[in-house]
Design a protein that fits this description.
Layout: H1 11-34, E1 36-38, H2 42-55, H3 62-70, H4 73-81, H5 86-97, E2 104-107, E3 112-115, E4 122-124, H6 125-144
Antiparallel strand pairs: 1-4, 2-3
Helix pairs in contact: 4-5
Length: 175
């Protein structure tokens, strides 16, 4: 049993810190339960390698192509969040892992490719597994449903003014 004391200048800041500590606690418990895998989206990409081997192009269907593409998106999104080209980062990860033991990933914080395990960039196995299971379940539900109701997408216009003001001419912004 341990007690963690959190101090902060404001109540909002303290709530944010408490939430981060709570997330870290749950991630640690999950890691203790099932271990860890390379982080940064690499574990899902490696799962994609196994998926491709299992399907071996004999089941080249729209569903398998969607899974094959979706499983690589976390790496691309991490790269995009770091201001990098996700496809290029993914290409370099694939190239680096042909010679390595499949643990080279992109460390966005350091902007370099390195062994994710050695760098301490790991994800709890339970978290990655659960995310994949939940995404699969949602996709199956969506694909087997005859009708889906969604929110109407908002139209993005050229209005730059406040609502009800009819918008402003973009050239007037510098006045």
């Amino acid at each position: 049993m341990a007690v963690i004391k959190v101090g902060a200048a404001t109540e909002t800041e303290m709530k944010e810190k408490k939430d981060r500590i709570d997330d870290a606690l749950h991630a640690t418990r999950a890691a203790v339960e099932e271990g860890v895998v390379p982080g940064g989206g690499l574990a899902l990409a490696l799962a994609g390698d196994v998926f491709r081997e299992l399907t071996d192009k004999k089941e080249d269907t729209p569903g398998t192509r969607i899974i094959d593409a979706a499983i690589l998106e976390p790496i691309k999104q991490i790269a995009a969040n770091a201001g990098k080209d996700g496809s290029l980062i993914l290409y370099n990860i694939i190239r680096e892992n042909k010679s390595d033991g499949k643990t080279i990933g992109y460390n966005a914080a350091a902007d370099k490719f390195e062994n994710m395990i050695e760098a301490g960039i790991v994800d709890p196995t339970k978290v990655v597994r659960s995310a994949l299971e939940n995404a699969t379940s949602a996709a199956i539900m969506f694909l087997t449903t005859e009708a889906v109701i969604t929110d109407k997408p908002e139209e993005k216009g050229r209005d730059h003014g406040m609502p009800g003001m009819g918008g402003m001419n973009p050239g007037m912004m510098g006045m």
